[in-house]
């Protein structure tokens, strides 16, 4: 059976940021966005220019986001007030971005975020990070670093200090997602500079190797020099383990198309042909997409109906412009939704065996929905690590651009409510059986979640 190693896939930022499409609330009209070019990061902005942008951001958040229906809370108002104080003197657009980002982060919604464009001239450090439960490690050997090195500090700051700083500038609902995005951003010059981790175009790194601390100076380099490349493995595939009567369906992205539907059908044909008693849905790299993949999967499961996501919609002037809503500005709540399962025509493919779901901190947005739907309908056992998203959260973003700096930002206008609200409040979907990946697992090419799954099957 093919190894299914978590955490080793490079993340594509756009997939992480724009990832939640729910079938229940799709509306026919979609806005065509004609964004202008963003201001260069080193451009000096005046107080008046920054005030114009900050006003636009604050007013948009207040008008659009479901969380601000009754205005900003005390903590959010404090962050906003602080932001206005910070812009009393001129600063670069790159510095101003982080002032704006702290305002965005005060909503604690991973789908509401502000984006800064990067260019080939932007520099990074070659630090392949993997952030596990017990700390940060080097995931790949380089000229200076060895795979498995434990990162003690970056720029003189410890893991705990870095995490506390990143929580202020990474939109997230839990620490898992801060770590997912943090490992990417801690290599970028803009973030390193903001966190004051750069010294004379170098970043001092201390790692623990063979029970000794080793100090390394990593230079800022052009991105092309890092040699990092994306993993091009298929986003949807499956394995059949006849010995353990186990089929593992792996879905890295929620893409609802013919490739998905054909692969899904082939999977259940093999499950039926081999009389497989256990199946697992591997969502450990799934950062979201189209939630229709869930309903399509359910067509092969022996249930007549199931609870699905519902939620609240804040219909603002901006939402009407971008989504084509009609009527008055309003806030609408929808009742609990029960889906009548449209099972596949071939009854031989209907599966009624045991179901397991594998999750990690990368399980996010519609990927998180998939796991939550299985949990809240008592259809499967969740194995792995807590997800990077709250089960009930916000999404379906509207897109905007600041008038002066040109920074693009996205604001949720819906509050998604999980199928079984009795399981709330939760800041993450916590597995029934928690199994964390360790650095030893990675070094020895072990898959602890699948190994645990096989052990459970064997002991039944």
Automatic annotation (TrEMBL):
| Protein's UniProt name | Tail specific protease domain-containing protein
Q: TM segments?
A: 7-27
Q: Does the keyword Transmembrane apply?
A: yes
Keyword field: Membrane, Transmembrane, Transmembrane helix
Residue ranges of domain Tail specific protease in the record: 213-436
Xref: InterPro entries: ClpP/crotonase-like_dom_sf, PDZ_sf, Tail-specific_protease
Q: Which Pfam families match?
A: Peptidase_S41
Q: Which organism is it from?
A: Thermosipho ferrireducens
């Amino acid at each position: 059976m093919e190894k299914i190693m978590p955490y080793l896939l490079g993340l594509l930022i756009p997939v992480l940021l724009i990832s939640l499409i729910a079938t229940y609330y799709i509306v026919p009209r979609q806005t065509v966005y004609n964004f202008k070019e963003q201001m260069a990061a080193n451009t000096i902005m005046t107080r008046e220019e920054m005030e114009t942008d900050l006003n636009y951001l604050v007013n948009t958040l207040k008008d659009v986001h479901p969380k601000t229906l009754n205005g900003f809370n005390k903590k959010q108002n404090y962050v906003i007030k602080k932001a206005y104080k910070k812009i009393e003197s001129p600063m670069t657009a790159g510095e101003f971005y982080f002032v704006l980002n702290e305002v965005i982060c005060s909503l604690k919604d991973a789908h509401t975020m502000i984006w800064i464009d990067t260019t080939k001239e932007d520099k990074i450090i070659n630090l392949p990070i993997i952030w596990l439960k017990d700390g940060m490690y080097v995931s790949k050997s380089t000229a200076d670093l060895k795979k498995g090195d434990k990162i003690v500090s970056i720029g003189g700051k410890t893991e705990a200090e870095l995490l506390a700083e990143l929580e202020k500038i990474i939109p997230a609902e839990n620490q898992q997602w801060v770590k997912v995005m943090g490992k990417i951003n801690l290599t970028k010059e803009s973030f390193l500079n903001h966190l004051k981790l750069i010294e004379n175009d170098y970043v001092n790194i201390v790692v623990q190797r063979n029970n000794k601390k080793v100090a390394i100076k990593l230079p800022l380099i052009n991105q092309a020099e890092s040699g990092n490349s994306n993993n091009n493995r298929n986003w949807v595939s499956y394995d059949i383990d006849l010995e353990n009567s186990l089929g593992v369906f792996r879905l890295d992205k929620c893409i609802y198309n013919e490739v998905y539907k054909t692969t899904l059908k082939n999977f259940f044909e093999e499950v039926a042909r081999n009389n497989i008693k256990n199946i697992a849905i591997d969502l450990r790299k799934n950062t979201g997409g189209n939630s229709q993949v869930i309903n399509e999967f359910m067509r092969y499961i022996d249930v007549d109906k199931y609870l699905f996501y519902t939620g609240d919609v804040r219909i603002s002037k901006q939402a009407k412009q971008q989504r084509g809503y009609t009527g008055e500005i309003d806030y609408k709540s929808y009742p609990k939704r029960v889906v009548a399962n449209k099972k596949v025509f071939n009854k031989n493919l209907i599966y009624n065996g045991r179901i397991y779901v594998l999750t990690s901190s990368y399980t996010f947005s519609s990927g998180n929905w998939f796991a939550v739907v299985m949990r809240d309908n008592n259809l499967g056992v969740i194995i792995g690590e807590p997800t990077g998203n709250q089960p009930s959260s916000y999404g379906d973003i509207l897109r905007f651009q600041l008038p002066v700096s040109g920074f693009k930002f996205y604001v949720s206008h819906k509050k998604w409510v999980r199928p079984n609200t009795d399981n709330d409040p939760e800041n993450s979907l916590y597995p029934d059986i928690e199994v964390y990946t360790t650095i030893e697992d990675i070094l020895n090419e072990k898959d602890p979640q699948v190994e645990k799954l096989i052990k459970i099957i064997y002991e039944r």
